[in-house]
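Marked as duplicate of an earlier ticket. Keeping the data here for the record.
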Amino acid sequence: MEMWHLRPVHWAQDLEKLLGIDTGFTTDRIYRVLQEDSAFRLVEEPVSPPVHKRFPDPVGEPDRLHHAVLAEAEEGPIGYVTARYEEWNRRAVIWGLYVAPEWRRRGVGRALVETVEAFAAAAGARCLWLETSNLDYPAIRFYRRLGFRWCGLDTSLYDPAGPAGGEVALYFARDLGA
C-alpha cells in the first residue's frame, strides 16, 4: 500500500521542497480553441510531436495565498495545492495544483482538491475556480472528472510569441452550493 499524507505548507521550511516538484506535463492531445462569430468552441486535437510544458513560477506569491497543503511520501514531497479566498465574489481560487508525474492518477490530486473544498466551505465560498492552459489536456480531463465546468477563456493571457504559441487560458468552476 502506498503511504503518503497531507499537511499544511510551512513556507520557510517548505519553499525549496515545493520548487523541487516537477510541475511539467507532456501530452499528445490538446484542446484547440476555435472562434466562431461570437462564440468559442473547444476541439480535442492530437498533436505531434507531443507538447511539453513546465510552469516557471508554480508557487506565485505566498503572502497572497490563504490555503497551502503539501502531499508527502516517504521519499519527500509529491504534490501541493495553493488557494485563496476572494471575499468580494465569494470564490475560492485554486492558484496552483501540482503532483509529481510518478504520483499522478493515484488519488493525490483529488485529495489535495478536497482540502481546498474544505477550506472554501469554511470560508463561505460559493464556488471553486481555476485557470489552466488549453494545452494541458491531462489537467482539463482531471478537473472535468471532479465536476468542474468550463466557464470562460482569455486569448490574450499567454504570450503568442512564447514557446507554445496559440496557448489560451481556460477557466473552470465548480459550484459548492453555498
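See parent ticket for discussion. Residues 108-123 form the longest helix (16 residues).
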